[in-house]
């Protein structure tokens, strides 16, 4: 994903700027998925939240996924002095308000510009698509129906009518937010045949170069491995690697600052550790790391059996774990003698093993039991030299959600340096190429993605529970 995504990529909304207005409905969480569907169509999306909407969904998720600061405050200016909702009104190709509350419909029908969503709609000449969501009696009320009719007939807004079904009030009726594909189709139809209003990126809403970070990992348990393992040849010699642990420790520090409970499994790190704020476990070898990792994740050292519950929300495997270990380490210091042949055996692929356990698969990849709950977010690191092409294969082979690939041969990137240039690959095929950044900034960019993935996981869980309740 580049900063200019949405401009010139394929899809029915390629090159379009879509303003997504979200208001204070229980269905606000579905706006996250709507944002994804719009970006999948090639749109550049900027999000506006009413004050009530921010009580249902935090702006960080929308900022991280849209790559734009989220408009929430009517009375605040952009950092460059422009008025945010006017910039959006003037440059958006379409505004879609989903979900739209009864209150918002009333405010809009009467031209009350008390929040950024109504203000942007009043100020724009772009088409407006409105998808209401509310309790069935609220929807049927003559006031709501009159407001909807005014928006449709007097203002020319496209109304994507709510659907019938179970409602948050536990009653049934018409009022559920319309299906997201129908809303996307309405947005596509609204812009069809119109020219792109503003193709100059400088005149569009600003990009979020550094999205605001908040305590978005409170209540999450993040397990991070850092450093490099050492595999003993004899009591004084080992096979090691150049990892110092800087990247993993930066991730642990960033997660702590964002409110997470952190377990840091540190293998021979060369930097100071946040021992006062995190649970720090020191290990030496790949075998020790495996035992401590399985204990921290599933509560069972060694063979994990069949865990049902994950003790963690996120695993970031930043440690450089040895791929080989001496088959028979000597108990005594070896002498020079006439030289030696060292027999090595492969170590287990820890990340793939954790992913298999978490997803309920056996060693052949067959599903043998239920995946652990809550579904953890798994992040791997791939240190490559030269091309990063193999990284995408690693992502699918290891069944992880995110893979951070870097070329450790590049100057300023990789082992020991304070900076890193990485590409973050995701399971949906996305590729986010970050510039050369301080490792701490790389850590925060990665955790932006992790926090958004956790929010999506929770939203999906909420949807599943609501669907179960309907049956
Ligand atoms: C849990 C909860 C869920 C709500 N869901 C809805 C809803 O789906 N639709 C709606 O019109 N109002 C809903 N409301 C009421 C709105 O949040 C309230 O009218 C608010 O003032 C809307 O502000 P806004 O239109 O400026 O976003 C809900 C309130 C609560 C507490």
Detailed description of the structure:
With 471 residues, the chain is α/β, with parallel strands linked by helices. The protein has 2 domains: 17-203, Flavin prenyltransferase-like (Rossmann fold, 3-Layer(aba) Sandwich), CATH 3.40.50; 221-329 and 343-470, Rossmann fold (3-Layer(aba) Sandwich), CATH 3.40.50. The chain contains 14 helices and 21 strands. The protein has helices at residues 30-40, 53-56, 59-66, 84-91, 102-109, 116-123, 136-140, 142-154, 180-191, 246-257, 286-298, 350-359, 389-398, 439-470; strands at residues 17-22, 44-49, 94-100, 128-132, 158-159, 163-166, 172-176, 221-227, 231-232, 238-239, 261-267, 279-283, 314-317, 324-326, 344-346, 377-384, 402-407, 419-420, 422-426, 431-433, 437-438. An 8-stranded mixed β-sheet has the order 12-11-8-13-16-17-19-20, with helices on both faces. Strands 2-1-3-4-5 form a 5-stranded parallel β-sheet, with helices on both faces. Strands 6-7 form a two-stranded antiparallel ribbon. Helix 13 (389-398) links the parallel strand 16 (377-384) and strand 17 (402-407). Helix 5 (102-109) packs across helix 8 (142-154) and helix 10 packs across helix 14. The longest helix is centred in the C-terminal third of the chain and has 32 residues, at 439-470. The model is unreliable at 1-9 (pLDDT under 50).
């Amino acid at each position: 994903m580049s900063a200019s995504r949405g401009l010139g990529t394929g899809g029915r909304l390629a090159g379009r700027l879509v303003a997504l207005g979200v208001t204070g409905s229980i269905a606000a969480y579905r706006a996250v998925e709507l944002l994804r569907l719009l970006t999948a169509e090639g749109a550049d999306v900027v999000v506006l939240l009413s004050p009530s909407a921010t009580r249902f969904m935090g702006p960080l998720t929308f900022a991280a996924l849209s790559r734009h600061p989220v408009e929430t405050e009517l009375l605040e200016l952009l950092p460059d002095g422009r008025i945010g909702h006017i910039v959006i009104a003037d440059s958006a190709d379409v505004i879609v308000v989903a979900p739209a509350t009864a209150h918002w419909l009333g405010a809009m029908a009467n031209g009350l510009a008390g929040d950024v969503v109504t203000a942007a709609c009043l100020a724009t000449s772009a088409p407006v698509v409105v998808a209401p969501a509310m309790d069935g009696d609220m929807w049927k009320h003559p006031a709501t129906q009159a407001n909807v009719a005014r928006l449709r007939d007097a203002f020319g807004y496209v109304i994507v009518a709510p659907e019938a079904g179970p409602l948050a009030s536990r009653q049934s009726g018409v009022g559920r937010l319309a299906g997201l594909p129908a809303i996307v189709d309405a947005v596509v139809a609204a812009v069809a045949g119109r020219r792109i209003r503003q193709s100059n990126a400088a005149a569009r809403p600003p990009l979020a170069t550094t999205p605001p970070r908040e305590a978005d990992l409170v209540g999450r348990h993040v397990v991070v491995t850092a450093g490099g393992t050492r595999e003993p040849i004899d009591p004084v010699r080992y096979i090691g690697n150049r990892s110092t642990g800087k990247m993993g420790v930066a991730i642990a520090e960033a997660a702590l600052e964002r409110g997470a409970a952190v377990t840091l499994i540190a293998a021979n790190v060369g930097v100071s550790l946040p021992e006062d704020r995190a649970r720090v476990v020191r290990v030496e070898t790949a075998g020790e790391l495996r035992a401590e990792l399985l204990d921290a994740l599933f509560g069972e050292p060694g063979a994990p059996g069949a865990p049902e519950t994950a003790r963690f929300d996120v695993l970031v495997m930043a440690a450089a774990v040895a791929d080989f270990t001496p088959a028979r380490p000597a108990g005594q210091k070896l002498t020079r003698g006439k030289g030696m042949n060292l027999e090595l055996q492969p170590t287990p692929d820890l990340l793939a093993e954790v992913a298999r356990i978490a997803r309920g698969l056996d060693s052949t990849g067959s599903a043998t039991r239920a995946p652990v709950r809550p579904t953890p977010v798994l992040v791997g690191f791939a240190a490559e030299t030269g091309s990063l092409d193999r990284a995408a294969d690693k992502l699918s082979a290891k069944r992880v959600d995110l893979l951070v690939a870097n070329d450790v041969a590049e100057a300023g990137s990789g082992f020991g340096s304070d900076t890193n240039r990485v590409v973050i690959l995701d399971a949906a095929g996305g590729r986010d190429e970050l510039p050369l950044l301080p490792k701490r900034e790389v850590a925060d960019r990665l955790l932006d993605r992790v926090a958004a993935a956790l929010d999506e996981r929770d939203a999906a869980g909420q949807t599943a529970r609501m669907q179960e309740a309907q049956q």
